[in-house]
Automatic annotation (TrEMBL):
<keyword id="KW-0436">Ligase</keyword>
<protein>
    <recommendedName>
        <fullName>HECT-type E3 ubiquitin transferase</fullName>
        <ecNumber>2.3.2.26</ecNumber>
    </recommendedName>
</protein>
<feature type="domain" description="HECT">
    <location>
        <begin position="1"/>
        <end position="142"/>
    </location>
</feature>
<dbReference type="InterPro" id="IPR035983">
    <property type="entry name" value="Hect_E3_ubiquitin_ligase"/>
</dbReference>
<keyword id="KW-0833">Ubl conjugation pathway</keyword>
<dbReference type="GO" id="GO:0016874">
    <property type="term" value="F:ligase activity"/>
</dbReference>
<keyword id="KW-0808">Transferase</keyword>
<dbReference type="GO" id="GO:0061630">
    <property type="term" value="F:ubiquitin protein ligase activity"/>
</dbReference>
<dbReference type="Pfam" id="PF00632">
    <property type="entry name" value="HECT"/>
</dbReference>
<dbReference type="InterPro" id="IPR000569">
    <property type="entry name" value="HECT_dom"/>
</dbReference>
<feature type="active site" description="Glycyl thioester intermediate">
    <location>
        <position position="134"/>
    </location>
</feature>
<dbReference type="InterPro" id="IPR044611">
    <property type="entry name" value="E3A/B/C-like"/>
</dbReference>
<dbReference type="GO" id="GO:0000209">
    <property type="term" value="P:protein polyubiquitination"/>
</dbReference>
Length: 142
């Protein structure tokens, strides 16, 4: 029985997926050569691929840039007051909304630049906030 179970597990987890995995591996390594990865420790590689999961939300606020807003505008002050009262999970959800990921890119929070833009629409009450994830921009109607 033990030999049967060992052979079955080997087939299910190794032999049956060998072909598809090799095709995936070949394509993956074409875009991400493994020779370059050897310079990283495992923890560093995880940060490069996945991003940081430690957050300094006040640093995010400090580094935010504003377009057609000033830092002391009431809309901005209200935004940050509400944001800082959110639970950690909701803050991560907001980060995912604005950037496409609930992690900070590998270069770190001190270099991450959120932008808040006033879309300058005629009737701001008829426009929802939106985001441009490529430029980390929140379109926040007044």
């Amino acid at each position: 029985r033990n030999e049967y179970v060992d052979l079955y597990l080997n087939y299910m987890f190794h032999e049956s997926v060998r072909g598809p995995f090799q095709a995936f591996r070949q394509g993956f390594l074409r875009g991400c050569p493994s020779k370059l990865w050897k310079m990283f420790l495992p923890e560093e590689l995880q940060v490069v691929l996945q991003g940081h999961d430690k957050f300094d939300w006040h640093l995010l606020e400090k580094n935010t840039r504003y377009w057609y807003y000033h830092k002391l505008d009431q809309t901005i002050r209200d935004f940050w007051a509400v944001f800082h009262k959110l639970k950690e999970e909701k803050k991560k959800d907001f980060l995912a909304f604005v950037s496409g990921s609930d992690h900070i890119p590998g270069y770190g929070m001190e270099w991450f630049r959120l932008q808040i833009l006033d879309p300058q629409v005629t009737n701001p009450d008829e426009v929802y906030p939106s985001a441009n994830t490529c430029s980390y921009t929140l379109n926040l109607p007044r």
